[in-house]
Amino acid sequence: MNQSARQALRRGEGTAAILEAAEALFSEQGFDAVSLRQVAEQAGVSKANIIHHFGSKEGLYIAVLRGAVERCDALLESLEEGEPLERLRSYTRENLRQMFDQPEAYRLLLREVLEHGQERGRELATRVVGESFARLVALVREGQDAGALRREIDPGLMAIVLVACKVFLFQAGGVLRHLPGAEVTQDPDRYMEAVMTLLLEGAR
Amino acid sequence: MNQSARQALRRGEGTAAILEAAEALFSEQGFDAVSLRQVAEQAGVSKANIIHHFGSKEGLYIAVLRGAVERCDALLESLEEGEPLERLRSYTRENLRQMFDQPEAYRLLLREVLEHGQERGRELATRVVGESFARLVALVREGQDAGALRREIDPGLMAIVLVACKVFLFQAGGVLRHLPGAEVTQDPDRYMEAVMTLLLEGAR
DNA sequence: GTCTATATCCCGATAGAC
DNA sequence: GTCTATCGGGATATAGAC
Known about the structure:
The structure is a homodimer of 204-residue chains. In chain A, 75% of the residues lie in helices and 0% in strands. The first copy, chain A, has helices at 3-10, 14-29, 36-43, 47-54, 57-75, 84-101, 103-116, 121-145, 155-176, 188-201. Chain A has 2 domains: 1-55, Homeodomain-like (Arc Repressor Mutant, subunit A); 65-202, Tetracycline Repressor, domain 2, CATH 1.10.357. Chain A is mostly helical and 204 residues long. The longest helix of chain A is centred in the middle third of the chain and has 25 residues, at 121-145. The first copy, chain A, has 10 helices and no strands. The interface between A and B is large, with 64 and 64 residues. The first copy, chain A, binds a DNA duplex (18 and 18 nucleotides) through α4.
């Protein structure tokens, strides 16, 4: 049982302790690899208690997923003022920081995309990632309207490349940092800054 | 039991049928979620037979992983002649096609990076992905030497962004195709072409 | 809301015949 | 090289007391 689970238990919030333990375990190992016994142990409750609160293992997973989505959405609310290009920069930078601040929640969402992206692609697109993606595309469009970005570029593609670079560092950073020539990846801020510069200025 | 597993069995190649079934299952569901019973069923052999050939479930997984790495490496050998920029373009395009041609093998490798990228990062970097990454960086350097790419850009970063965009489409394509504004992602060739153009010309 | 005890099932691995 | 039968353990889920 970890510290904050212990605190939650002391306050009588059994479900909170369970949710926290489950999020950590599911995000690290995936749904199938985690047993209720593990969750119960880490949360400091019994297996039966989990079933009592969430009905089944899948019910617990859905509750955990819902929580992670809400938390990630809430984090993305705040958007600084300023020039479009600078807002795009800060939004992307902040977003990457949030991923590293809340790795469990983001890993869980990414796992969901990887695992069920084919069958539940439409559902995930509309309910989970659609809003924040639309916001990013709108930011790029604002940059075009303000004359800071070329009209010819596809705002959707620009947004995708930005997200791809963020996600890739988050997922593969542990491997990238050991590749000769990939030293930029060792500092997320510097990495994202370099990506933005490359995208804006171009390689040619 | 699928068709090619049936064919392999008919030829007396039990191990081949097992490896093929195991690669499909491991790449779809991950190591822990797959049972020997599933593998045995899909390969048309008994559980005991698998243990007899590979010693344990982990032994089977390692054999599958080794096969996937070898196959992916072999596919990347051939490199067309021509101008550096065109070679970079065709290399990236071909690589993406290969991912979609052999999704099981690539999904398996990506899973390995995501799951064990933290602990085994150095090992994966040197033994699995190091060589092909170095080749990509070298291609970018050649472009710089030929004067087709600016000296200021970091070849490693350029390579990472290219890989990130490839991997992201491969992983999240099922979700991306349903996002308004992300229509480019519906054709891998067109997508990769658009990414290259954006990277070369820049957005500003 | 939390527990213990238990039912039922499936897991990986072994033993040994053919 | 392949099989059947089985062991020991851990999985999810249920029943019912406190």
